[in-house]
């Protein structure tokens, strides 16, 4: 491959500060096989298979000029400092092989051909002592011949006897070959080797393994070719092979040209040899120092050499200063702002006059003052105090050291190195929810306050059983010997405790017939009856133990204890029926013995009484109201003159209207039954038949009665 290098020498002169002028002086040289050849020098001499010599020359303009002519049989190996393989025949440097009665060698990328040299003495036909006709045999792979006597070479005969000194090989084409020990004969795909083993000569046959069988086994730019009569084919170059700058291997046909960045590649075929000509453009050795302001020496994409490329805007300010601005960068000079913009690869300077946002302190916000420095276009608002946004969405300003307190936080203003810093101190609340409050309290947070409080909403009471109780307003709890009531007065909860005052503390506090008794778990004891208390008709009170009696007039009182209950049984002398309701008021009195009552009778009336009913050993469960008719009705006797008899008129105080009612009775066997009884609704005097008066008075007899209330 040929490469043309162009070198340039740069001389820089500066006509102005921004536009350097470059003068370029160019020199060149040719490169082949990694060697550099100056102009007007020989590059190489090469020989092809047909015996033609090729001459490459680097001209004064660095153009490779190639000429060819017939050359001697032996080709001089061109001098090369770096060994190369023979890629056109796919052989390594230093390889040697036989081909068509020639010996070929690969030396530094060139193939040399040397004809096989035969011994001139082999042309003499000997006379065989055995009388046989000499035979023509081949050696040196069939390139040389000689005549030998069958089975015995005259030169081998000593003292009339023959000694074998070589192998004799009869080829399949009818030729005979004599091979020395170690000598080989190649015929098509067969290799015959002569070996001397223990004084005997043995012929070994080996079939040749071909390295290539098709073009697929060849590399790019090569094709598989097998000549007639040869055992194996070879890979023959049919195109130029070139490794491009992008590290890809390219193949070029004869005359084909490929252009890449900084180099041009052309393929030439010269008498079967493929030569790659590569021309490389040489770039000047400069740097950004050779460029003006806003320019850098750099290589653009898809370009070969670096150039002075603009990378920034150049701005000459009114104060005669020059400024280099990058894309997007700004420069301000008083009220003028210069911006650099890159548009479609070009750098454009945009000038804008500044509109001042502030003209006085009125344009500044709270905590700021207007300030304009000398030489500046616009003034600015400078902070002179702390600015604090309170929780109530109001904004406040604080001077240095000033302290303000707001809901839940205290704010202090500090000035440090010209900066104003607002220090906030948050309040810590002791209570956050009702869970933080104790029993009887609830969490309340009023609007505008930072922290909530635990407000009492019930009375708190430690009960005698060591438990803490809460009571709402008006709620009452009762415990042993104590009653607790909760009251709320103007938001205050007051617990009122009332101790139980026991009416009896000992037997001395109990009346006659009672003794003091206090049960476990009860607050107060009681007076339990242990005798009958009998109030006699003479207004005297008597204490009667069980079985004791008291007598007064027509009455006898006896104390009995039944099932733990004390009762007084009174026995009276039987008096005629007496109902005070039948009496005219104020007419009641005792008879002369003071035992029975008598009175002036009144008219018939309805009488009501509440008692327990006793029927057949069964007693009503509850008290029953029993009504009856009582009172006096007019009656009389008079003589009838007509009838000449005594006429009697009688009337009876009896029920006028009644109804039937039911009551539940409990019997001695604990069973319960329903019992019907008559209930008198109203009474009246009803005429009735008079009975004959017997003239007999009812005798008064003693009959006992029970007073269950004593």
From TrEMBL:
InterPro entries per UniProt: Cys_knot_C
Disulfide bond sites: 618-667, 629-683, 633-685
Domain CTCK: 596-691
Database matches in PROSITE patterns: CTCK_2 (PS01225)
Keyword annotations from UniProtKB, A to Z: Disulfide bond
Official protein name in the record: CTCK domain-containing protein
Organism: Phoxinus phoxinus
Organism lineage: Eukaryota, Metazoa, Chordata, Craniata, Vertebrata
